[in-house]
Design a protein that fits this description.
Layout: H1 26-39, E1 46-48, E2 58-63, E3 66-79, E4 83-89, E5 92-101, E6 104-110, E7 116-122, H2 124-136, H3 147-159
Antiparallel strand pairs: 1-2, 2-3, 3-6, 4-5, 6-7
Length: 163
């Protein structure tokens, strides 16, 4: 297991749609171990594989003292009236912007043994599930910001020392 470096806004891997993972592939186990170790750092709620430079459909989460992962997830439900929540991203460090998200989300996928995994929740878990699924489809959270907020976000990001 290795804590991996987070890819930052501007890295092309973050804009790429991730490919399915073969759970039996030995590389999948190594990827999951790295995802778990990297998301386990306090203050991190979720981490998609492309955020560590791997174009595979997998993510880890660290919400409400529960750490886990899912391979080949599918967002099967995001429901409830959209709510404005402050959202940040490890690939856009130091920034939080108001973003509309559904208050409930459900994701289905698999574990390394090929067994079904269901992740669902409200609040931060719902937000993390939607956020990580966006990553796996090559989208960053700033794309979903209201136009005026997005313009200001992009201006601030361009001024960030890491940009």
């Amino acid at each position: 297991m290795t804590e991996r470096q987070i890819r930052l806004f501007g890295d092309p891997v973050l804009r790429s749609v991730c490919d399915p993972v073969a759970p039996a592939d030995p590389r999948a186990a190594a990827l999951v171990a790295d995802l778990i170790e990297t998301v386990a750092i306090p203050g991190r709620a979720g981490l998609a594989a492309n955020q560590i430079g791997v174009g595979s459909r997998a993510f880890s989460y660290n919400v409400d003292d529960g750490i886990g992962y899912v391979l080949n997830p599918i967002l099967v439900e995001a429901s409830g009236e959209l709510e404005l929540v402050d959202e940040g991203c490890l690939s856009v460090p130091g920034f939080y912007f108001p973003r509309l998200r559904h208050p409930y989300a459900r994701v289905e996928g698999h574990d390394l043994e090929g067994e079904s995994v269901v992740l669902e929740g409200t609040g931060l878990m719902a937000q993390a599930l939607q956020h990580e699924m966006d990553h796996l489809d090559g989208h960053l959270f700033i794309e979903g910001l209201e136009p005026e907020i997005k313009r200001e976000a992009m201006r601030l990001i361009r001024l960030a020392p890491w940009y």
